[in-house]
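O-antigen/teichoic acid export membrane protein
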Amino acid sequence: MLKKAFLVVTGNAFGSALLLLRNLIVARLVSPHDYGIASTFAIVMSVVEMLSYVGLNQLMVVDKDGDDPHFQRAMQGFQVMRGMTSSVILFLIAQPYADFLGISEVAWAYQVIAVIPLMNGLQHFDMHRLKRHMVFRPFVATQSIPPLISVLLLWPIALIYGDYRIMLVSLLIQTASMVILSHVMAERPYRLSFDFGLMRRATMFGWPLLLNGILLFGVFNGERLIVGRELGMSQLAVFSMAITLTLTPTLVLGNAAQSLFLPKLSALRDDDSSFNWFGTAAVEGGIAIGFLLLLGTVLLGGPIVHILLGPKYDAMLLILMPMAVMQAVRVAKTGASTVALAKHRSGNAAIANMFRVLSLPISWLAVVQTGSVYTVLAIATVAEVLGYLVSLSLASKRAGLRLRPLLMPSILFGIACAGALIDAAILLPQPGFLDNLHWTRWIVAAIILAGLWQMSALRGYVLRRLRGRV
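Tokens:
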């Protein structure tokens, strides 16, 4: 399984690194104002996704009929209907969305983006079905090769357009490449079926995920909408880039962890003892990702920002550590949601994310009153802490997960987050590597390493795999 883990992690990392590279190149090529507009494209795509997401890819993995050809045809038919509906919604909201952000002249671009969900609706689901059998190569290929194509074509696009339209064309090329590759990598022929009984069954599975998708929109984009509307596109560019640099690694590792843990947990759900042990490892995996983000930001965050983006984005150093702490807490709670999902408790993630969404009106008021993003990040972090605690409680009550083994890793994780914030208050992340290595940062690093060592289930599983015992 470690070889498969390496394939999934490296494939997802490669694809996400390319998307990050694309964002960095576009940020270098255009002004902060234009990059702020470009970052709104991702937000509007998230609006559509949240309105139609019912977890069809996850259902292909966990459902007992996921291997059945008719079931797959029905899910692909459902995906086509989703794509058509999403395209219509996106086209209709394009002008109001542009007006809300104060960039009415860009509405045409959002209308062009409406073709993306229509294309995405035509993807082949074999790449998701094969994950049931721990075959990840087609999925990894469809997640890594299209971003590579979009990056390689950036320079020709930039010769034609010198503004936010570079990102617009790149998104269209990436989506088309992904859909084509999903068919090229498939084992089964592509067929559609409109079995409304199976669609209803998928909807019953997915409605909590739909609710969670709405909540995740608030989690990933709520503050960005607030900053963009109230503080303008240039401020949004800095804020969005800080999100991108801290969110990308957590999404890569978090999605890889779910792809690895969910099939195994689903297979063990009737074996309480094994499920508990593997579930503990899954939760520890989410916390470990948060630890690694903190460690990287504490020791290398300042120099990386300066090298990648130059002085144009030095203002990001002011919010880099608070943003990293918030993202670390967010990803830490994903392990418990994966454990619950393995037992078809798909609503747990939505409940855990609700705190972040409920905090958005408070964040909006804070921005209006103070004009500062610090209070936004503080409010979001508190909401994520509450979500983390609730996610553990729900996994215990609904999935039977024992929480005692997670107590010490969670305590050390909280101490590490507090230490990172205190360190950033003492000395902001610095552009130079040597200037960045303040003694307080080594203390935070030591706490993080101690927390990683406390994860006995995750460590035990990795050691057993290395010895060939599991």
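The chain is about 80% helix and 0% strand.
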